[in-house]
């Protein structure tokens, strides 16, 4: 089976989980540290310099491609596309399949009957622990920021987060599948109002509402959330 960047990222996630949950007092930490440092040193020459983006590793190439796109049609392209959030945000800290700190959270465009919505699911491991047996509230807030921002993008309303309000209704359990849903509640000039919810089985764990601001320069850009 050929190895890919995705398989390496998943192996790193597994390592993080082991380190987070293991009693390392009797382990050979010198051996582990030397091996990890050796891997880091071996991979360091592959680092790509430049501006960091969730959408791409090579900013210069993306900027060049942007120059060939009519700014007035960017939102239409985003709204009519077929990419799910993890595909246009591959380096996201929440949904990025190429980012080892992403849980990852899966998000996708809803079916025709719920057109305009973004749905998702996640299973948060121990690295994201807050209260005993539960997900950290800050991680939940970050997940909502990504969910609501992605909802703006797939509706052709790419914007930056202006305000985000999260209401925690019950604890969100670790290691259990949770479901996400978000939708555009309305627009007003450059403001986009988006709402979302997180559930575990039938329990409503948290809700969110956000005001996203459409930038005159970055309107509709993937990653502008």
Tell me what you see in this structure:
- With 225 residues, the protein is of the alpha+beta class.
- It has two domains: 1-47; 51-213, Hotdog Thioesterase (Thiol Ester Dehydrase, Chain A).
- Helices cover 31% and strands 22% of the residues.
- The chain has a six-stranded antiparallel beta sheet with strand order 1-2-4-5-6-3, with helices on one face.
- A hairpin with a 2-residue loop joins strand 4 and strand 5 (191-200).
- It starts with a helix and ends in a 12-residue tail after the last strand.
Number of helices: 6
Strand order within the widest beta sheet = 1-2-4-5-6-3
Tell me the CATH superfamily of the largest domain.
Hotdog Thioesterase
CATH class of the largest domain: Alpha Beta
* Shape call: globular
Question: Based on helices, strands and strand pairing, what is the structural class?
Answer: alpha+beta
Based on CA atoms alone, the radius of gyration comes out at 19 Å
How many DSSP-defined strands?
6
Query: Which range does the strand content fall in?
Result: 15-25%
Question: Topology as H/E string?
Answer: HHHHHEEHEEEE
Helical fraction: 25-40%
Q: Largest beta sheet, briefly? A: 6 strands, antiparallel
The CATH architecture designation of the largest domain is: Roll
Q: Give the termini separation.
A: 36 Å
CATH topology descriptor of the largest domain: Thiol Ester Dehydrase, Chain A
Q: How much is the average pLDDT?
A: 87
Query: Runs with pLDDT <50, length 5+?
Result: 218-225
Number of domains: 2
């Amino acid at each position: 089976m050929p190895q890919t960047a995705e398989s390496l990222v998943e192996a790193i996630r597994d390592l993080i989980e082991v380190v987070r949950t293991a009693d390392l007092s009797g382990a050979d930490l010198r051996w582990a540290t030397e091996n990890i440092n050796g891997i880091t040193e071996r991979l360091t020459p592959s680092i790509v310099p430049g501006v960091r983006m969730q959408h791409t590793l090579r900013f210069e190439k993306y900027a060049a491609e942007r120059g060939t796109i009519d700014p007035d049609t960017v939102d239409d392209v985003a709204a009519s596309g077929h990419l799910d959030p993890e595909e246009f945000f591959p380096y996201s800290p929440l949904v990025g399949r190429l980012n080892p700190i992403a849980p990852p959270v899966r998000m996708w465009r809803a079916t025709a009957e719920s057109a305009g919505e973004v749905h998702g699911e996640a299973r948060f491991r121990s690295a994201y622990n807050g209260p005993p047996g539960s997900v950290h509230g800050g991680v939940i807030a970050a997940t909502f920021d990504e969910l609501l921002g992605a909802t703006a993008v797939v509706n052709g309303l790419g914007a930056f987060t202006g305000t985000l309000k999260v209401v925690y209704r019950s604890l969100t359990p670790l290691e259990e599948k949770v479901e996400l849903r978000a939708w555009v509640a309305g627009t007003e000039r450059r403001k986009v109002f988006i709402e979302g919810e997180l559930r575990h089985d039938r329990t409503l764990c948290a809700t969110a509402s956000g005001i996203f601001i459409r930038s005159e320069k970055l309107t509709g850009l993937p990653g502008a959330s």
